[in-house]
Amino acid sequence: MLTPWRMGLNERQMKAVRCAKENSSINLSALKKAFPDVTEKTLYRDLQGLVAKKIFKETGEKRGRKYQIR
In CATH, what is the architecture of 11-69? Predict the structure, then answer.
């Protein structure tokens, strides 16, 4: 099994994965609450990175978008 750091995940991405496992999904708003000092753009890039690595799948559009574990 690949460990998070071998997959190139940062701390925010690892927390997003943990939250998605606990709650069945996560969205940008929830991640903003967890990391209030990080810009929305950076958090969005973190989520998109997880989608690109095929860890998350996206559902919904724009403000209704959610990210779930594949």
Answer: Orthogonal Bundle (1.10)
Band of residue 61 on the pLDDT scale cut at 50, 70, 90:
confident
Task: From residue 3, give the alpha-carbon distance in Å to each of 7, 19, 30, 65.
Answer: 7, 17, 24, 27
The mean pLDDT value for 26-51 works out to 95
Is 61 within 8 Å of 28 (Cβ atoms)?
Answer: no
CB 61: neighbour CB atoms within 10 A? 7
Q: What is the pTM of this model?
A: 0.86
Q: CA torsion angle for 20, 68, 49, 16 (degrees, to 10)? A: -10
54: left (phi over 0), alpha (psi -120 to 50) or beta: left
Domain boundaries, the chain: 11-69
